[in-house]
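Annex B, item 7. Sequence and structure tokens for protein A, then protein B.
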Amino acid sequence: MIVSIPNGIVKIKKDGVEFTSNVDRVNYTLRELTRAALRDVGRFICNRARKQIKRRTGRVAKNTQYWVRKKDGDLQVGFKPGGFYGGFQELGTEKQPKIGALYNTVKDNIKTIRDIEGAYLSAIEDEQHALSLIDEGEYQGE
């Protein structure tokens, strides 16, 4: 679903001065910049977790995926349905030792995640730069 950027809709004329409300446009830009930042964070976490999984076990790495949920405005990183045993590797069981690749990746890279988020959200000041960062593509990971 491609949604175009809303124009300033409300125009108020008072004593010859015209005010244009860009609230809808700003809300759209903020929402889409946040989603784009979450998408890149999801990609980063999945790539790092895949490397860690391959290094330790070699299994389940291709089934790591991220989801950026539009309605809730959040990021979920986990395993695809084909990666059934990924949860067992992540949390551990009686017979399977805990690997915790996703947890450790996020814990070890908090500064990088903040830098990625900051790069997008600092673009709020420049509208053209913000619009170039927003990608209208798919918001579901590999």
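Protein B:
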Amino acid sequence: MDLQGAARAPREIDTSGLPMDQAQALVLDELRALTERAEPFAAILLMPAPAEGRTPAAPASGTSTADRVRTLKLIRPGLTALCRGLAFVAPADIPAERAEAIHSGEQLWGCPTMATQDVTAARAWAGARVGG
């Protein structure tokens, strides 16, 4: 296996079948692991569709929003230093607050982002960001 080629290949994180709070926690865990490798990377994030009948104020199971914010703050320096791009693949009908977080790019994540509904476009963009 070509380890240099593997290091350049974007990491695909598929959370599409999970509840949103679990998906967000998994994304942060995966991004933390990528930053701990101390190598440049890009990632494709396959995000879940909104839950039927769930309002944004509904209690989440698993990690809290505050926990996720703390985790993002902890890994943000590594994202800024190492992440060449995060490509979010999300359905068109996501709630406004999720769309805002995805589109906030470097301001929130510390690295370039793109959002699309097209996984092929996300893979191409992320691949180009890491030269893979």
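Comment on protein B: The chain has a mean pLDDT of 83.
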